[in-house]
Specification:
With 187 residues, the chain is α/β, with parallel strands linked by helices. It contains 5 helices and 8 strands. The protein has helices at residues 63-70, 84-93, 119-126, 140-149, 167-186; strands at residues 11-14, 35-39, 44-46, 49-51, 56-60, 74-77, 131-135, 154-158. The strands form 3 sheets. It has a 4-stranded parallel sheet, sandwiched between helices. A two-stranded antiparallel sheet has the order 2-5. The longest helix is centred in the last third of the chain and has 20 residues, at 167-186. It is globular. The protein starts with 10 loop residues before the first strand and ends with a helix. The relative contact order is 0.21.
Length: 187
Amino acid sequence: MRRGKGRSRPLLFLDVDGPLNPYAAQPERRPEGYTTLRVPHESGTTGGLLSRRRSLRVWLNPEHGQALLRLDYELCWATTWMDDANRWIGPVLGLPDLPFVEFGDALFQERPDGVHWKTCPLVDYAGGRPFAWVDDEQSDLDHAYVTAHHHGPGLLHHVNPRIGLREADFLALADFARSLETSRSTG
């Protein structure tokens, strides 16, 4: 796992598909304010035949980059894109290279307890540091896991993959960061 240097601000774990790329929106109706990015699939072999698939369509709202940077967080990719998010997603959003969670063997591995495969690696990466996590796949089981295993404040913020991040989401994230500042100044 790569970690950023600054440790004073809370972490904001960013998923790409769902929050930043509203992949579940109507397929032929790009949301207003979004641009289309075409990411080529890597070609491979399947049964001895060259596999050629269409490029992956990703919708991104360039304004989200500045909105994320204005938040009082240290941004960190928490996505299957891992470091590829710095290559493909960050530039469209105007984001600098960000640290990312390297999921290793946990990647896509279903857990018998129903907790999302990202949850434990994110809690480990945070190491007790306050964090917010925006994703479209969290459940009550993930909330319970974070409450039981994370020794600091944590916000699991669900984003509808049909609409992606909206103003209300940014407000909720800003409110959480402010609540941490308030608790530090009164504690």
